[in-house]
Specification:
Elements (H helix, E strand, L loop, with lengths): L4 E6 L10 H19 L3 E8 L4 H9 L4 H13 L1 H5 L5 E4 L3 H16 L3 E11 L4 E3 L18 E10 L5 H10 L4 E2 L1 H12 L5 E2 L1 E3 L8 E2 L2 E6 L1 H6 L1 H4 L7 H7 L3 E5 L3 H14 L7 E5 L2 E3 L2 E2 L10 H8 L1 H10 L7 E3 L1 H31 L12 H14 L3 H22 L1 H7 L1 H22 L4 H11 L17
Parallel strand pairs: 1-2, 1-12, 2-3, 7-13, 12-13, 14-16
Antiparallel strand pairs: 4-5, 4-6, 6-8, 9-11, 10-11, 14-15
Helix pairs in contact: 2-3, 7-11, 12-13, 14-16, 14-18, 15-16, 16-18, 17-18, 18-19
Pfam family, one: tRNA-synt_1g
Organism: Candidatus Kerfeldbacteria bacterium RIFOXYB2_FULL_38_14
Keywords: Aminoacyl-tRNA synthetase, ATP-binding, Cytoplasm, Ligase, Nucleotide-binding, Protein biosynthesis
Length: 483
């Protein structure tokens, strides 16, 4: 890990559909880590964007009776809107139709070709348009793609360019061995190591333009465009100015990537082999997210159970939405949500938990000391342990674990109030009242610092109320939900 800079990137959402909670989750996990590293005084480069080439995009634009570029422009704007909707802090939004990216992809192709990793051949292959990937029989269930079982596979027979994926098997396995934390969680790392160990097949990296014209032109061969996965993966370095701005590139690369488990092969094997073929350093770490289900089912338009990020913000507010998405599932695992589950957690953790603690504490300080509390006590010894556990969880992308650590302290503080009864101490023991409220105030300040990457607006309100010479009484930040 570089000392003064930090680079994190999401995968680029494919723009054939509207933003959904899976995108929101990936963006938020990256955002929290980017804010956390910013708080540690690092210069952070946070990249996301849109993946805009390939057959699905081409077909979708035709169905909408739009030019493909106009369709992509429209969809890119929908994803850009997630920034204000979720208060994201990304400072790079790359589109694979950007001129700079196109040139970078072509230069990357040339380097792989010069190094002997690209060749041309005729082939016949089963192909899933939904995945934009070729499929072997071993990957199919009853002859169909398990991820797109309602969609018939295509049989493709044509002359394409291929990437010599097979040539990088041993070097990938050696890289994995030397970097035992390269993929998290470990069970996903085990999956990809097993996949590579079983042998790698070269994969097609071009399409005939006459059949599928929407893509980056292959250098030196105007009859072909690049396969969408080959082109899209290069965004992780083109966003850093590669190959023109090598100073910026070397300043931030290699970086940390976040992806969904459906993209495991592409991010942790294909892309890493491509980097080796282009004589570039591999990524630093890849965090792999699980799926979000709704009421026990995979989120799907056909099932009518898709929850949009905007719907959650409307019901819970922005920071509460951030909290719920980051706290409800363990990193790397599939998890299930529902409006009922989210309502319960919102009420327990935010309205009755943090909101109640903050309101009660500031109200008592205002009531008993007119907002002026004597100087705080030293930090409790147990905070060192809490801080260490919190930092470890953050560095490992375990946002729900990090939040659980802080909410344990919030719960202890609410219990501390009931046990010590400050309202009685105000009548009988003023010195002890000072100690109790100082402990609560210090704990809230400690929590505020930790919550800033997760709930930046809430942390700002808490800071304004708690950090001055006068502690301001603050109304509950999380209103009761309407039934």
């Amino acid at each position: 890990m570089k000392e003064n800079t930090f680079y994190i990137t999401t995968t680029l959402p494919y723009v054939n559909a509207q933003p959904h909670l899976g995108h929101a989750m990936e963006f938020l996990r990256a955002d929290v880590l980017a804010r956390f590293e910013t708080d540690r005084k690092k210069q952070v480069f946070f990249n996301t964007g849109t993946d805009e080439h390939g057959q699905k995009i081409y077909q979708k634009a035709q169905a909408e009776q739009m030019s493909v570029q106009s369709y992509c422009d429209q969809q890119a704007e929908n994803f850009k809107k997630l920034k204000p909707q979720l208060n994201l802090s990304f400072n790079s939004f790359i589109r694979t139709t950007d001129e700079h990216h196109v040139k970078a992809a072509q230069e990357f192709w040339k380097r792989c070709e010069q190094n002997g990793s690209i060749y041309k051949k005729n082939y016949k292959q089963k192909y899933c348009v939904g995945c934009e990937l070729e499929k072997t029989d071993s990957e199919l269930i009853d002859g169909k793609c398990p991820e797109h079982h309602n969609q018939a596979l295509e049989i493709r027979e044509e002359e394409n360019y291929f990437f010599k994926f097979s040539a990088w098997q041993e070097k990938l396995l050696l890289f994995y061995e030397k970097n035992p934390d390269f993929v998290a969680p470990q069970k996903r790392f085990k999956e990809i190591k097993n996949f590579v160990a079983q042998g790698l097949a070269d994969f097609s990296i071009s399409r005939l333009k006459e059949k599928m014209p929407w893509g980056v032109d292959v250098p030196g061969d105007p009859q072909h465009v690049m396969y969408v996965w080959f082109d899209a993966l290069i965004n992780y370095i083109s966003c850093l100015g590669w190959p023109q701005d090598l100073e910026k590139f070397s300043k931030f690369w290699p970086g940390v990537q976040i992806c969904g488990k459906d993209n495991l092969r592409q991010q942790t094997a294909m892309w890493q082999a491509m980097l080796m073929a282009a004589d570039l350093p591999n990524s630093q770490k890849v965090f792999v997210n699980g799926h979000i289900g709704v009421n026990g089912q995979k989120m799907s338009k056909s099932l009518g159970n898709v929850i949009a990020p905007k719907e959650m913000v409307t019901r819970y507010g922005l920071d509460a939405t951030r909290y719920l998405l980051l706290a409800m599932g363990n990193f790397g695992e599939d998890f299930d949500i529902s409006w009922e589950k989210m309502d319960i957690k919102y009420t327990a953790d935010l309205a009755n938990g943090l909101g109640n603690l903050l309101s009660r504490t500031t109200n008592m300080i205002e009531k008993y000391f007119k907002g002026k509390l004597p100087a705080s006590l030293e930090k409790p010894e147990d905070w060192k342990k809490i801080n260490t556990e919190f930092v470890t969880a953050m560095e490992n992308m375990e946002s729900s674990k990090a939040l659980t650590i802080i909410w344990a302290l919030i719960g202890e503080c609410n219990e501390y109030i009931e046990k010590n009864k400050p309202w009685d101490l105000a009548k009988t023991n003023q010195a002890q009242l000072v100690i109790v409220l100082q402990r609560l105030l210090s704990s809230l300040k400690f929590c505020t610092l930790k919550l800033a990457p997760f709930m930046p607006a809430t942390a700002q309100k808490m800071t304004e109320a708690l950090d001055g010479d006068i502690i301001y009484k603050i109304e509950p930040l999380f209103p009761r939900l309407e039934k």
